[in-house]
Amino acid sequence: MHDIGKITIPSKILNKDASLTQKELEQIKRHPESGYQILRSVDEYASVAMIILSHHEWVDGSGYPEKLKGEDIPLASRIIAVADSYDAMTSGRIYTDCKTKEEAIQELRACAGSQFDPEVVSVFIEQVLLYGE
């Protein structure tokens, strides 16, 4: 549901196997706002619209679309950001090679404090990825 706004982006952009142009990148960056607009118009999903809007915000304030920072980003959005990034790193994508679990964990840790909430990263790694190992 977090990427529902991508339905407004042409598939030729979403599935492009080359670098995106600046215009295409701007279209991609609008998907949280599109998702917000879609969800806030449906009573049953209006409560999660703000979470969807904020899932590409970075804790250092350099994310998008509103440049929110730290605790101003809803906790659910901070959780989605980590899970979504892990999925992107470890799943087959047209534009990048898959990372191993260990490489993805290293990347998450490296981005904790800038892109991701360090506490969310820690809990995700320890309680989801490494639980039971």
UniProtKB/TrEMBL annotation:
Alphabetically ordered keywords of this record: Hydrolase
EC id: 3.1.4.-
InterPro entries, sorted: Cyclic_di-GMP/3'3'-cGAMP_PDE (IPR052020), HD/PDEase_dom (IPR003607), HD_GYP_dom (IPR037522)
Keyword Aminoacyl-tRNA synthetase belongs to the record: no
GO molecular function annotations of the record: hydrolase activity
Gene3D superfamilies attached to this UniProt entry: Hypothetical protein af1432
UniProt xrefs under Pfam families: HD_5
Keyword Electron transport (UniProt): no
Residues in HD-GYP domain copies: 1-133
Name of protein: Cyclic di-GMP phosphodiesterase response regulator RpfG
Naturally occurring in which organism (per UniProt): bioreactor metagenome
The encoding gene: rpfG_14
